[in-house]
Amino acid sequence: MSQQVDIKDELPVTALIEHKPEDLTGFLDYVCAILRHKGAQHILITGLPLPGKAIGELIYRNQWGRSESDNCDICDILGSDILLRKIAGLATPQLWRYEEAQSWLEVSRLIEILAENPADQKSLNNIIGIHVHRFNRVQMAIIAAGETLRLSEPDLYFLSCQCQVTMFELDSARRVEQTRSGELSNRERHVLALTAQGKTANHIAEELRISQRTVHAHLQNASEKLQASNKTQTVIEAVRYGQIELS
Q1: CA–CA separation, 3 vs 27, rounded Å?
Q2: Which intervals hold domain HTH luxR-type (predicted)?
Q3: CATH 3.40.50.1110 is right for the domain spanning 15-172
Q4: Where are the domains of the chain?
Q5: ∠ at Cα 156 (178, 82), nearest 5°?
Q6: Domains 15-172 and 186-240 share a fold
Q7: How many CA atoms lie within 13 A of 42 on its CB side?
Q8: Across 157-206, where does the E strand assignment appear?
């Protein structure tokens, strides 16, 4: 049974550990309640799509913006959005001050949606990004914005760790499902993983018992799926979006 959480409840950042949500809905309820208590005015929790793919089918909680048109705009946002890309590469959670990060934040469509509404502009003062990732299973972005949004660095890190642990437990119990379009094939992943180890096309062809032409075809396909301009960027994007792990 899902645990119902009153969004007005004043929950500490330890709530996820203290209450142990039993399903994804309970997890989302607690995360939203904690962030609201800390001053979040806008919250978006979504799976991270690959570049060129929209987030629409991956959204878990959309409390970003005020109008129905905002919701439609958000569903059409691509994985190449600068804020989503930034979060996909985070090893630790971040709190950005808009005035300090405006140069790159202002080109994010997510940020534009709030900036276009005068009533929401002050909520851009503080923006939190949390990257939740379990390799080859689930990759999630938790984004919050608020004029008075405040989490100390230890609290933000602790909340992020709780999210990671809780999602690991829910996924292990098969209570989370995430299917992304545009994922690399197993062979494309294998070729990229070997490329990341510094192996040449000739070495990869010999190891996989395929032709060098096939190796290059797999690299080209992976590059197109990840919208990368060269082999190095293809490897970097594959790591960013959880397509390969570095051994």
Answers
A1: 9
A2: 177-242
A3: no
A4: 15-172, 186-240
A5: 55
A6: no
A7: 28
A8: none
Instruction: Provide the token pair at 23.
Output: 């399903």
Reported pTM: 0.90
What is the chain's pLDDT, residue by residue, as a tens digit (247 residues)?
445 555 445 566 776 667 778 889 999 999 999 999 999 999 999 999 999 999 999 999 999 988 766 777 899 999 999 999 999 999 999 999 999 998 999 999 999 999 999 999 999 999 999 999 988 789 999 999 999 999 999 999 999 999 999 999 998 888 887 888 999 999 999 999 999 999 999 999 999 999 999 999 999 999 999 999 999 999 999 999 999 998 7
Q: What is the largest CA-CA distance in the chain?
A: 61
CATH of domain 186-240: 1.10.10.10
Among candidate residues 61, 33, 77, the one with its CA nearest the CA of residue 132: 61
